[in-house]
Design goal:
The complex is a heterodimer. By secondary structure, chain A is mainly α. Chain A is about 65% helix and about 0% strand. Chain A folds into two domains: about 1-35, no CATH class; about 55-375, Ammonium transporter fold. Chain A has helices at about 1-15, 25-35, 55-85, 90-125, 130-140, 150-165, 175-185, 190, 215-220, 240-245, 255-270, 275-290, 295-300, 305-310, 310-320, 330-350, 355-390, and one strand at about 35. The two termini of chain B are about 35 Å apart. In chain B, helix 3 crosses helix 5 and helix 8 packs across helix 11. Chain B is globular and about 65 Å long. By secondary structure, chain B is of the alpha/beta class. Chain B has helices spanning about 115-125, 165, 170-180, 225-230, 245-255, 285-295, 380-385, 390-400, 405-410, 420-425, 435-449; strands spanning about 5, 30-35, 45, 55, 60-65, 65-70, 75-85, 90-95, 130-135, 140, 150, 190-195, 210-215, 240-245, 260-270, 275-280, 300-305, 310, 325-330, 335. Classes of the chains: A mainly alpha, B alpha/beta. The interface between A and B is large, with 58 and 73 residues.
């Protein structure tokens, strides 16, 4: 490995100030620091620093997303073969899923990282690691059949308008992954809602059984279904909902896979337990309130089914906890999370036009997070002022 | 009024190389260096020229805007070299010892009961700078009357020296110093001890002081933590602080009429053959010791602790306020795929490294930066290690934005660099919090003057 290091040191001067390839210095730096933790030592302030850095932080989130990705690949194949009525060979399903999902991941990363590198170059700073996570999140919250050019457009929109215009990673107001999804949702609604998009192959009608319906549970709930059924008309059990063998966006269906990721985030302390806990509490509260005052079938959906359906679990674990767009103060995090859970179920039940309330609830609270923090910080400031007055 | 305060937020960095409680053999010290940059915000004015002879206790330079505050020589000898930096900034004054140790006698200045005369004795002899003020963390102004005086009798920082060991034989000096300080304030003198500390037994007339105990992880020993928990500083209030290990120097002046800035100093860190304690004066050059006492060649010498100290590798002389020299390895090496490796030998507050699951042990921690500077992404990590009733990250942001009103509102008067040093340590974005905080304090000082 010394050889590699020597080679890097040999070409490095080209990318430094005055070198021929200076215009690519951010790119070089990104690859060099990917290979090696730099030899930079502390020069001011504390002489020692915690071993944690942004790369490690982001890679932990990416690892936490891997179970959802793997299950999403499997489930994409599974749903397709249920709809076509073909045999259920495990590896065949996985292969079908790989063909559908991996291009989504690849396109997202290529487009997103390309823009990130370009901006880093223009701004003359190091490439931020934030997109490593965003690039993994976006493929998991879109339907598997989304055309790749649409996805590319959405990624470009979210990175440029959602993030870079505000100053880049750490400065954005809205969650970039959800910005991409919201863009698709409002720009190309026919690819993001309805009963055809959630099962791969249905839009093109590839050998789908006659009369098969690919409606998600949320759509069924919003149209007043009392019992959830799959495309073949069989009853969907709570166990199916928990495992995730139901139609939906690529990575959002399996609560089990999401819980594995949540476990990693909570254990390492990377994800905020305050936000996860309060979002859960908010969702349960709203679900219970609807159950108590239920006057229509949508309100009668048991509170715990809300937690298993749609993007609630995925949004709770991976979206609401994005530290940049969430509330910063600890007290603020409780309020922020609770309102996300509360609003998500509220939108789901009362506005049938938007069956997926989680996305809108999180984006809405992203906007309000600074206000929540302002209130929390003001109470600290008032306490300080009172100290003077009480003397 | 005695109370035990339990500090919950904080972090004990498990760095290896704590000094054992024994005295090392003395070594030859030929040079002593005075560094005006040890004193934040000071504009020094030289009183001596190169090759001029000085006695111990004789003024070498003074505060330009407060000329009665003198900075005196720790040893008798002559001024060997005066080193200046950019714009002729005075950096170092190197004094060569003549090994005779002639000292100025201040006996005619001693007058026990007049606070004015005591102040003049302390300023002229060079011990006054041991008294610092909050806000700002600068040398106290002798013309002020502080609300209270706070003294911490323990240090919780990494590799910190053990005050019980260092101060156990200093009973008379400490009491003389405390009695002197009593003249300077109409408020209380707060003495803060580690829970169950035996040091409290050496204090005479204990009813003259307010005794409190603290327990918990670093920064439980910082005077800033104590002030915040006992009675926080408000705008326009001044509090003085003295480090307990400097009290004997003040006491010795009162009792023996001599300036003798000698303390028991811990030389600690993973790079030492043997970490223990040495009798050293302010400014003492330890290069002779480094020739034999250190294991490797690639190390950094820090006057003070690893969180707040000064890098003195180029001229290893003890700083004015420091009772500890830390010697740790330089981390100027590349590490392949460091961000994905399990990290068995890495210390972190986060459970993102395998070392966190293994049983507790101490770590060799080097000076590697562990990553690059980034914008703030993570929130709430500063709060985990800051027990003060303050939002550290928001205060840092207010400083970066230059918002003076917000800095005041968020409590900038209550903190100095050391209070936020742990925030800097844990920062995932590798923000230089201490440097930013000092910039903010300087802005406020300018605004208030």
């Amino acid at each position: 490995m010394k050889f590699l290091r020597k080679q890097i040191d040999k070409i490095k001067p080209n990318f430094e100030k005055g070198g021929k390839m200076y215009f690519l210095h951010s790119t070089f730096d990104a690859f060099e620091t990917f290979l090696y933790v730099p030899n930079k030592v502390t020069s001011k302030g504390a002489h020692i620093r915690d071993a944690m850095d942004m790369k490690r932080l982001m890679i932990i989130v990416v690892l936490a997303l891997v179970p959802s990705l793997l299950f999403g690949i499997y489930n994409t194949g599974l749903q397709h073969f249920i709809a076509t009525g073909q045999s259920h060979d495990f590896w065949l399903m996985v292969w079908y899923g790989v063909q559908k999902v991996i291009p989504l991941v690849a396109v997202t990363y290529v487009v997103g990282l390309g823009i990130e590198f370009a901006f880093a170059q223009i701004r003359k700073h190091e490439v931020n690691e934030g997109f490593l996570v965003t690039g993994m999140l976006i493929p998991l919250i879109v339907p598997a059949d989304i055309p790749l050019w649409m996805l590319a457009l959405a990624v470009a929109f979210s990175v440029i308008i959602g993030k870079e215009v505000f100053g880049g990673t750490g400065m954005n107001i809205l969650n970039p992954a959800l910005t991409a999804r919201a863009f698709l949702f409002f720009a190309y609604p026919s690819w993001m809602s309805g009963d055809k998009v959630w099962v791969s192959g249905m839009i093109k009608g590839e050998n789908i059984i006659d009369g098969f319906s690919g409606a998600t549970l949320l759509e069924q709930a919003s149209t007043g279904a009392k019992v959830f059924i799959n495309g073949l008309g069989e009853k969907i059990t709570h166990w199916d909902m928990f495992l995730g063998t139901i139609p939906g966006s690529v990575g959002e269906t399996s609560v089990l896979a999401i819980l594995v990721g949540a476990g990693l985030l909570l254990f390492t302390g990377v994800g905020s337990w305050r936000i996860m806990f309060s979002t859960l509490l908010g969702g349960i509260t709203m679900g219970l309130l609807f159950n108590i005052f239920a006057i229509n079938p949508a309100m009668e959906v048991p509170w715990f089914e809300h937690l298993l359906m749609g993007g609630f679990a995925f949004g709770l674990v991976f979206m609401a906890t994005d530290p940049v767009t969430a509330a910063q103060t600890n007290k603020g995090k409780y309020i922020y999370g609770f309102l996300i859970g509360f609003l998500a179920i509220l939108i789901r039940v009362l506005n049938p036009a938007y069956p997926e309330g989680m996305m809108l609830a999180i984006l809405f609270m992203n906007v309000f997070a600074p206000l929540i923090d302002h209130m929390v910080v003001n109470s600290n400031i008032k306490r300080r002022l009172r100290r003077v007055l009480n003397k | 009024m005695t109370k035990v305060y339990k500090i919950k937020k904080g972090l004990d960095i498990r760095i290896s190389g704590i000094a054992e409680l024994s005295r090392g053999e003395n070594f030859v010290i030929n040079y002593y260096t005075l560094r005006p940059i040890d004193f934040v915000g000071l504009t020094p004015k030289l009183l001596k020229k190169e090759s001029e002879v000085v006695k111990r206790g004789e003024a070498v330079y003074c505060d330009k805007y407060n000329p009665e505050i003198k900075f005196t020589s720790p040893v008798s000898g002559h001024i060997d070299k005066i080193i200046r930096g950019e714009k002729r900034k005075l950096l170092e004054i190197i004094i060569k010892s003549d090994n005779e140790d002639n000292a100025i006698n201040f006996a005619d200045q001693i007058s026990e009961n007049s606070s004015e005369k005591l102040k003049s004795l302390l300023t002229i002899s060079g011990v006054w700078p041991f008294i610092k003020q909050r806000p700002y963390g600068i040398i106290a102004n002798p013309n002020d009357i502080p609300r209270d005086i706070f003294i911490s009798f323990f240090d919780s920082a990494p590799l910190a020296c053990d005050y019980e060991f260092v101060l156990k034989d200093e009973k008379s000096n400490i009491n003389a110093a405390l009695k002197t300080l009593k003249n300077f304030t109409n408020g209380n003198i707060y003495l803060n001890f580690k829970k169950n500390s035996k040091l409290v037994d050496i204090i005479d007339n204990i009813d003259d002081y307010v005794i409190n105990y603290f327990e918990g992880p670093h920064p439980s020993g910082l005077v800033g933590t104590h002030i915040n928990k006992i009675q926080a500083i408000n705008k326009n209030e001044i509090v003085w602080t003295v480090n307990a290990t400097d009290l004997p120097i003040i006491g010795n002046l009162i009792l023996n009429a001599e300036y003798n800035p000698e303390r028991l100093i811990a030389i600690a860190g993973s790079e030492l053959k043997q970490a223990c304690y040495y009798n050293l004066r302010v400014g003492a050059d330890i290069s002779d010791f480094l020739k034999t006492g250190v294991k490797g060649k690639n190390f950094r010498v820090i006057s003070g602790n690893v969180l707040t100290g000064t890098n003195i590798s180029s001229n290893p002389c003890l700083g004015f306020y420091d009772n500890l020299v830390s010697i740790i390895p330089e981390g100027n090496e590349y590490e392949m795929f460091g961000w994905i490796q399990p990290g068995l030998k890495k210390f972190s507050i986060n459970r993102a490294f395998a070392s966190k699951i293994l049983p507790p042990k101490s770590f060799v921690i080097d000076t590697n930066y562990h990553g690059g500077n980034r914008a703030y992404v993570v929130t709430g990590e500063y709060e985990k290690v800051c027990p003060l009733d303050i939002f550290p990250q928001l205060l840092v942001k207010a400083i970066l934005a230059g918002d003076i009103e917000k800095m005041e509102n968020l409590g900038i008067y209550e903190v100095i660099e050391e209070d936020f040093a742990l925030c800097e340590f844990v920062c995932t974005s590798k923000t230089n919090v201490q440097t930013i905080l000092r910039e903010g304090i300087d802005i406020i000082r300018k605004e208030m003057s």
